[in-house]
Amino acid sequence: MQNSQLIHILSSLSKKETRELRKWLVSPIHNQRSDVVQLYEYLTSSNRLEDDKSLEKERIFRKLYPKDTYDDAKIRQAIYFLQESIESYFTFKKASEDEILSKLYLAQNYRERKLLKLHDKVMKEIQYKTETFPLLNDETLEQRYIIEKEKLLQLSEKSRAVALNYQEMSDLAEMAFIAKKLKLACLMLSHQKIYKKDYDFGMLDPLLAYLKGKESIFETPFIKVYYHIYNLFRFPQEEEHFFEVKKDLHNYDYAFNNAEKSDLYLIAINYCIGRMNIGGKSFVREAFELYKKGLENNILLESGFLSPLNFRNIVTAGTTLKEFDWVSSFIEEYQQYLGPEYRDNFVKFALARLYFEQGDYDRAQDLLIQFDIDDILINLTAKTMLIRLYYEKDEFLALESLLDSMRAYINRKKMLAYHKMSFKELISASKRLIKIQFNDRKKIEVLQNQINNSRILPSHMKEWFMEQLKKLRR
After folding, report:
1. How many structural domains compose the chain?
2. pTM (2 d.p.)
């Protein structure tokens, strides 16, 4: 049973869920089999879920049916009914978490029983809840459409002469569709950008044309924000869409839950990173301020953890802006939110970056040499820092060796073609740089042209190369 679905399910339960589930199983409404309760109690006690011997079916059978001869079909039946009961508990628990949805089910029940006064009472409660609930996203818009549909059924049963709410239903159906379509288009464009996958966007173009004449629809913050997010992906050079998103995230903070806010902040931050990579220096500050705001509002933590990528990017942005005191405090305060498997390496990387940008090359070098992680891009980013460090310390033999090892590493690792080309060009430019003698104007000009014409070298490395070439000209 070690790898059975039931064991995986039970292993995922919290202590609170384990207690609640026992109460669920002993209730005859949910389960009438005593062997199912016994099986549950056996499996969830004395750390048996982690003991392979305790999970042998023959041993479990003896505990449940001490007087019977082993019957595989009988034990499998108990397992089946226990898993079925647990899944019913999960379904009930999930439905109960949504108060409006639970009330709506109750209203539907009363209407079907012709208890219309009770139906009216519950619908008024739902109306109050929706009016005081600030979140209006693709899911809640669809939920409001279902509420209006329930009102329609209620009105239809009361009288044929009463005015029906078809217009409200139509408006909500349209808004829910627009919200879903815009959000999905953004997700598709994001995925397409990374994985070069072609998508059919269906009726998106006619929808966008329709929206141009419907200013009232943009009064819904969710639709307005995703409209500008779509344009960020589609027309990245039109920076006004970024500033609209930034403004709306501040003005309509109440309109998004934390998960949605986290996604939107990261989309805006990734846009900034994209602009930075093509030389948009002002977007370093924009990304940094968005990261700070995300940390202040506690929306960058997922299940209590800060992703290593965000941790690294925050340090990179902060050190680029020379915000050294803030970065030092950030590393000290937020390293505890890194997963244990990442913490040591990413703190070393962060401190190395901080020391490097402060000009403390020896301390930075000590940390970078210790740095060892499976992530290919992070590894190469650390080695990129070593390139600069070895060059500025005139350790050219170490630099030559590093460049050769990087080239071999890149050739044997699987990675996106864009990243592979970018690092190969970095190695090529670095090898040319260390061969240039002081004031060798011809070679300096050749390398300058290579750097200027490159579309794949990161902008901060372009700037670094130009600084070194400028020094060689003196």
Report:
1. 3
2. 0.78
